[in-house]
Design a protein that fits this description.
globular, TIM Barrel, binds zinc ion, 236 residues, six-stranded mixed beta sheet, alpha/beta
């Protein structure tokens, strides 16, 4: 079956994410757009994923837990997982490497953690957009070790992309899929996401993947098949 997706949406936990990007608002907007699956990918954290996943489950939207990691080179890498427990373990790993810089909400914005009723249950005190200590050379294998898929984010964009910073997407980095709106930029299988920081930026139902079931498991199996079709890829 065709599943319409948007695998890169920020919530109000990202300092740059709009305060209206609450778990319920994101899920409801995605459903209005006709999407079947989304991934919630905040900067260097997955802590609003449990709420979004619970709201998604109640309303018939598959929500994958995810994170947009900032590598030590300031490259953004989308880390997609099937289960929250995997994302949480990955986050614990990332936390240990992250620079500690206090957030200043009046400048960078609030970083709110919410429950499935959109109630604020916490606020991250340290700024989430700073780089981690994880290098782009190790991230693909590391994320794979936690059961996820690492996807270099918005590679056709000038800011924080692997192409802008390294000049090339070396096959030795181990990525088997890329997030890229433009065609002809990479030979890797491509996903096209919104990188929405505002509700109105969430994707229309345009890009889809072929999955056997409309479930996190089905979506992840479909993503793994795409990765396995990457040039020079070994089977995952
Ligand atoms: Zn980014
Ligand atoms: Zn992003």
């Amino acid at each position: 079956m065709k599943l319409y997706y948007d695998f890169h949406i920020h919530s109000c936990l990202s300092p740059c994410g709009d305060e209206d990007n609450t778990p319920n608002n994101i899920v409801n907007m995605a459903l209005l757009q006709g999407l079947n699956v989304i991934a919630l990918a905040d900067h260097n954290t997955a802590r609003n994923c449990p709420a979004a996943m619970a709201v998604g489950q109640k309303n018939g939207l598959v929500v994958l837990p995810a994170m947009e990691l900032t590598t030590s080179e300031d490259i953004h890498v989308l880390c997609l997982f099937e289960q929250y427990s995997q994302a949480a373990r990955w986050e614990a790993h990332v936390q240990k490497t992250r620079q500690r810089v206090r957030n200043r909400p009046e400048i960078f914005g609030h970083q709110r953690i919410m429950n499935e009723k959109d109630e604020v249950i916490g606020e991250e005190p340290d700024l989430l957009i700073v780089s981690s200590g994880i290098s782009v050379e190790e991230v693909a294998a590391l994320v794979e070790g936690y059961g996820g898929i690492a996807v270099p984010a918005h590679i056709d964009k000038p800011a924080n992309s692997v192409l802008a910073i390294l000049g090339a997407l070396d096959p030795g980095l181990g990525f088997r899929m890329a997030e890229c709106a433009a065609e002809g930029v990479t030979e890797l299988p491509r996903i096209v996401d919104s990188d929405a920081h505002y509700l109105w930026d969430i994707a229309d139902a345009v890009h889809w993947i072929e999955a056997e079931t409309c479930s996190a498991h089905g979506v992840f199996a479909a993503l793994r098949r795409m990765c396995a079709s990457a040039p020079g890829s070994r089977n995952l």
